[in-house]
Amino acid sequence: EKAKLNINSLLELIEFNSGLFHSSKGGQIGSYGYLEDYSSLILAMLAMHEATLDLEWLAKAEKIADTLVSSFWDSHETRLYDTPEDGDDLIIRPSESYDNATPSGSSMTAEALFKLSLITNKSEYFNIFISLMKSTAIIASEHPVSFGNWLCVYDSYIYPTIEIAIIADDPKHALKMRDCLYESYIPNHIFCGNAYFSYTEKARNKWDTYPLLNDREPKTDIAMAYLCENYVCELPVSSTTELLQLIRQKTKVS
User: Fold this and answer.
1) Domains detected in the chain
2) Helix (H), strand (E) at residue 194
3) For all residues of the chain together, what is the average pLDDT?
4) Do the Cβ atoms of 195 and 174 come closer than 8 Å?
5) What is the mean pLDDT of the segment spanning 102-107?
6) Greatest mean pLDDT range, 55-59, 96-100, 122-126, 243-247
7) pLDDT of the residue at 237
8) Across-strand partners of 191?
9) Quick check: 165 and 228 in contact, CB under 8 A?
10) Dist. CA 61–CA 46, nearest whole Å
């Protein structure tokens, strides 16, 4: 709940100030938000979606991602800049790919866009992700110590990704199914869910635009889970035991 409160407070500041700023205190804002601020926020929203299975967080993550692309991505040079296009006037607009004590804004953006591309199947996110991977492939292989987070992103892309979708009318049932996923390590997975199916069906909030959720409905008072790869799914299961068994068979992890 505190994480939700913090992110919503940040979104209110973004709305009020017409943009994300790097810092604020006592109503006073600092410099314009950097690439790492936007990419971190997207990853936080994706984590909130996993925690709540509320589609609201996916919609918000997409909105911030679209702003990131329009403000930081140069399609002609196929590169990301660390400062926004309409940000502070600088002699040289910085563009840093190296990961240091913390991941670079570029590597976090690649991670965020890759995850969003799997959830939304939007080609724009995926194409930018591929361009970023190509631009760092050689230098990352030559200096791996300086590209720690990049290497994690490469690993996620190279090896097959398991897609998990959970759908329910009641969050209580959906979150119980979700909790079992944290009982063991699941390599290279993406997680998407809708714990409020009846509400979203009436509200028509575009839940059906997410490939892992489209045309899938829960049974009454039962959460349904789907294990997929490249959007091709196994038959749905309704128990945590069955879901974990499917995951173990797919990943060969006990």
Assistant:
1) 2-158 (1.50.10.20), 162-251 (3.40.30)
2) strand 189-194
3) 87
4) yes
5) 96
6) 122-126
7) 94
8) 164
9) yes
10) 7
